[in-house]
Amino acid sequence: MSELRTFGWYAARVAPHLPKEAFQPVPSRLWGGLAYLIVAVSGIAAIGVFDLPVIVNIAISIVLGLCYGGIGLFAHEVLHGTVIRNRKWRDIIGAIGFWPLCVGPKLWRKWHNMEHHIHTQHEHDDPDAWATLEKLQKKPLLRKIYKLPMWLRTVISFTLLSVMFTFHSSRMFKTYINEFKPKDRPAVWMQLILPWATWIALLVWLGPSKWFFFYLIPLFIANAIVMGYISTNHRLNPITTVNDPLANTLSVTVPKWVDVLHFQFSYHAEHHLFPGMNPKYFPMVKDKVKEMWPDRYFEMPLTTALAALWQTPRIYHNHTELIDPETGTVYGTLGNGLDPNNIEAKKPEDKEATVPIYSKVKNH
User: Does residue 271 have a pLDDT over 90?
Assistant: First the structure.
């Protein structure tokens, strides 16, 4: 990998080649969010009011899951200020979009817009960065988990994608709640409590069997959709000391109709270059970036990225390598020897890493 550059360095060189309207909000995107909201409310009402056959409830659950995931991606776009600028309405619309996933707009801006975007893939400062070998050594529970065979850990981790966003957002609440000013904390708490209170109230009112179909199954699907993107956005890329979006972020490709449904969330390197730009214009950004830095830009089909995740461990070693701490097997990262189409172990830069972590801890 060549010298790392900041996202501002890239943005300053790409921006002059883009039209002025690319830096303006796109209110017409609200129609997409409204469509998801109408379908979601209709689906909840259908299951709640009618005694439908199980097969119909399952079909509606799948549609609701797609809606919950899609409207969550819409909320992400809104809370970046790329749809409307008015902060009050951004918060209201963003809260509605994240209601199924139970994430408040104030927490999201702190966790995602500020911490993740500013410190992307920083070993210590990015709240979404995966663990390093050094961190793993300090966490006995994780060390026990990583004693499991890699294939079993992979099955478990992919299964947990169906709940991971919900669990991680709860962890982010615990991490950041005390960093809000005292006068803002009640609002952050309310933005957490109200969505959960809504879903629990519906559970009590309509009963667990209906709730299972209109919330629990769709929640699993929504988590899987969101985490399918999030997991591939950065976890094949290296840890970086400089926030270089072309080094630490991956764009994936999906069918055009999926891009429409998911508000162009697949253009993730572009998003990290211009987080305040509406994704409608990301194809332009992509074309210019590939023209200017073709050897630095990473993209692949989403299915290929997921397959690469399946075949590689999730612990970082020396920032640019992924290591299985049980066997010491090392793999590269994007730009550092990882070929997604031909996953092979590599010789580690640090020969000490070939010794299983548990042996090293015991010896110490």
Answer: yes
